[in-house]
Amino acid sequence: MATTEPASADRYHHGNLRAALLDSALEVLCEKGVAGFSMREAARRAGVSQSAPKHHFGDTRGLLGALATRAYRRLCDQVEAVELVGRDVRERIAALSAEYVAFARDNRALFDLMWRTSQFDFNDPDLIEQKHRALRALDRGLRGQDAQLPDGANPARVSSHAVWSLVHGYTILALEGAIDGDTSDPLTSDLLPAMLQLLDVSQTACDEPR
């Protein structure tokens, strides 16, 4: 689970109240989950008045939305840092998937929030930008570093969405304890290779350096 430095009134006096509130909000989220989240408690831990968060976020939905955007940004930074050069497509997708699962396990509360679309504005422009970053990272891992993210209903999107769906579904099962931790990880050994075969990723494409 993600950790942050202890809350302190000094955060406000250092001049970055928005960041301080997000840090405090993350602490509350990690301890109480989405259902028990309180903007008032986040303000208290940041050492500011109960009304202070409204200036930056409007309401609880706005604060949770900003926190979800931060979560997507962290995920994207982590996934984009994976070295893909010199790997074939199966190796690239396996490495990206492993990073995705690791992020979810290390940031359980944030990962849970990211998909609670009823709790914040899922169409916020900043959030949409980070969601697109995540898809681009996976898409380039699958189709190569020079691949441009296709728009709309372009069939080229199908493979990336299919792989993401598999990895995300597996991650949820793993977090809920449905995957036996004492056995070998079937995601990279069995599930992803089978998915890539179904998507008709040829051996030539797999062996082509990106």
UniProtKB/TrEMBL annotation:
The keyword Transcription applies. GO terms for molecular function: DNA-binding transcription factor activity; transcription cis-regulatory region binding. PROSITE patterns: HTH_TETR_2. Residues 15-75 form the HTH tetR-type domain. It holds the Pfam family TetR_C_33. It comes from Haloactinopolyspora alba. InterPro entries: Homeodomain-like_sf, HTH-type_TetR-like_transc_reg, HTH_TetR, MT1864/Rv1816-like_C, Tet_transcr_reg_TetR-rel_C_sf. The keyword Transcription regulation applies. Residues 38-57 bind DNA. This is TetR family transcriptional regulator. Keywords: DNA-binding, Transcription, Transcription regulation.
